[in-house]
Design brief:
mainly alpha; three-stranded mixed sheet; single chain
Length: 148
């Protein structure tokens, strides 16, 4: 049975998904602000975040703790070439990545939500904090993607 954290995670992902899929492909290549990433690159950054957080969530759930690196966000976005990919591809990829993450969160035992997680040089936080912060991060970038 999914925990309250897992149910909230899925609910918030559903809202983010609906908002992302309502963004016009015409907006995808436009930077959200002068000199900023395009909407495609922001979604790509969210994909990179999903990949990195998948490792964090799984390792903390299995091992009871996690300690690992930050990642070079700009370099990750550049090396993936998100700006050249079709908007539809990026949205489908986002959808699959987040279905996988939601499944992981569904299967994390409640007692592991307190697992200690250290990312880079940041202070340790709980796995539950990482999960909740992940959604806050998605929401923050969603505002950029949907900005006029």
């Amino acid at each position: 049975m999914a925990s309250g954290v897992a149910k909230q995670f899925r609910s918030q992902l559903d809202a983010i998904r609906a908002a992302l899929f309502s963004v016009s492909p015409d907006m995808a290549d436009k930077p959200w602000r002068e000199g900023g990433w395009t909407r495609k690159e922001i979604v790509g950054h969210l994909l990179d975040s999903a990949a990195n957080n998948r490792q964090r969530f799984v390792r903390a759930a299995i091992d009871g703790s996690y300690a690992g690196p930050m990642y070079a966000q700009d370099a990750w976005v550049a090396i993936h070439g998100y700006a050249e990919l079709p908007w539809k591809t990026l949205l489908e990829w986002w959808n699959v990545e987040h279905e996988i993450l939601a499944s992981i969160v569904d299967h994390i035992p409640e007692l592991r939500m307190d697992a200690s997680c250290t990312v880079g040089d940041d202070a340790p936080v709980t796995l539950q904090f990482l999960i909740e912060d992940y959604i806050a991060h998605q929401m923050s970038h969603l505002k950029q993607i949907t900005a006029e």
